[in-house]
Amino acid sequence: MGMYNEKVMEHFMHPHNAGDLENPDAVGNHGSPVCGDMMEISIKVKDNIITDAKFKTFGCGSAIASSSVATDMIIGKTLEEALSYTNKTFIDELGGLPGPKIHCSVLAEEAVKNAIWNYAQKHGLELEGLKGYDPNKEFGHDDHDLEEE
Amino acid sequence: MRQVYLDYSATTPVKQEVLEEMLPYFTEKFGNPSSLYGIGLSAKSDLSLARAKVAKLMGADEREIYFTSCGTEADNWAVIGAARAKKAKGNHIITSNVEHHALMHTCEYLEKEGFEVTYLEVDSKGRISLKDLENAITDKTILISIMFANNEIGTIQPVKEIGEIAKKHGVWFHTDAVQALGNVPINVKELGIDMMSVSAHKIYGPKGVGALYIRKGVVIPSFIHGGAQENKRRAGTENLAGIVGFGKAAELAEEKLEEHIKRVSGLRDYFAEQVLARIPDVEINGSMEYRLPGNINFIFNYIEGESLLLLMDAKGIYASTGSACSSASLTPSHVLKALNLPYEKMHSSIRFSIGDFTTREDLDYTIEELVKIVERLRAISPLNRQTMKG
Ligand SMILES: Cc1ncc(COP(=O)(O)O)c(C=O)c1O
Ligand SMILES: [Zn+2]
Predict the structure, then answer these.
(1) CA dist., res. B281 & res. B294, Å (int)
(2) Going by C-beta distance under 8 Å and a sequence separation of 6 or more, which residues neighbour residue B5?
(3) pTM score, two decimals?
(4) Which CATH fold would you assign to the domain B4-12+256-389?
(5) Can you tell me the ipTM of this complex?
(6) Distance CA B62, CA A81 (A)
(7) Which chain B residues have a beta carbon less than 8 Å from that of A29?
(8) What is the tens place of the pLDDT at every residue in B293-313?
């Protein structure tokens, strides 16, 4: 359709890490009331390092592509590192998203945070990157919106 | 790669016969219909022939057809014209909540000027209730504008009954028949229609030509001011080639209407049956009884419309969606919302529209690809039968 760049299309057509992990250490999910996209992410963690991640996403091309790069990027990273990633990180990795589609990448950021939060809850971890995180927060239209590029 | 165009409701290709009819009007027959010498006069008479053909397709008199620049202009003119003409009587307009943007945004524009608009709700199949319509009429009501057939879900409204109600209450009835023309038998006289919008590019004519039927006796002010074209009611040098093309397209549609309806609805029914048989958890939006022949709108549960379109596009299959993520506004189309569908189902809705160049092989190819694409997207979706029940 020509609305996405080649890298986004590549991740959309052949997403990395799609599916469910067997016996995950934590699962996170996020649904965006804005566009109706939904993402579920499962992670394996060892010594505070994410050793594996898989996702399932109901969403548009950018939601699926963002899920793919997000899981790619967090594998092998510490929990704190993974928490430092925002949707902007994923968009940059994808080489940009069309303006109206930017918010679709928020899904990935929030699902990653949610999974790590669940992991931290289970293991009584205090993580800097989760300060102020509220898993029940409602997302409005303008949250995380970046300037159109 | 095979290319399968299944978006005839968005626009149609210009038929070869139509194109051939149009071409001389760009070159040797280029005269201005207002000029008083040979090529001007012949342009004028050709314009009138085209007008007669468009009129015939809807059972109107030639003098009741006013060419416009598109269907959108016809909608704007009808509604704003009626509002201006009837201001002394009242300020109330009745329409539906599934109209095309061309009509909906025109109503919203008039609301800002102080007009009151009732947007009738539709049932789960997309039809308005005649009782609601009648209850909505007040002594201030000046116009009822209800579309003939919906562009997304293909639902055909009870036009004849609406015409009767309008007449009983002495209110003008306008209908947007952009999708219906050439797809449904239309006789404006029998249906009690006072004004009707149509567009050439949905019936194998060129883009950028439309018309407004205005019944004799209905007087609305001009919308485009200037010269004396279109019987002084729509100024601007006529888009001669376009209008001639519209005329030819209307003539072909008229000649082959029955055959077209039969063939296209036959293909559509075959397609729908196959999709429902081969893919689990698929539903149909709209009514199967009151439906445009070429339209089918599916809910592919658990997957999002845009991602489905992108994967179909990669296989050369072209359709459309009212899903939120494919629109700049990020909300699902107002038509899907009007059906009161659960949120996920709105996002999973896809429209296919079949037309005269669609073949059974095209549909077989589409079905084979769809089976694979739906399976692939469902495999990576967090939604499934269990989650959707919860
Ligand atoms: C129901 C309906 N009304 C109006 C229009 C607008 O027609 P046009 O594209 O000629 O402006 C369309 C076409 O998209 C339509 O489907
Ligand atoms: Zn999206």
Answers:
(1) 22
(2) B13, B318, B355, B357, B358
(3) 0.94
(4) Aspartate Aminotransferase, domain 1 (3.90.1150)
(5) 0.90
(6) 73
(7) 382
(8) 999 999 999 999 999 999 999
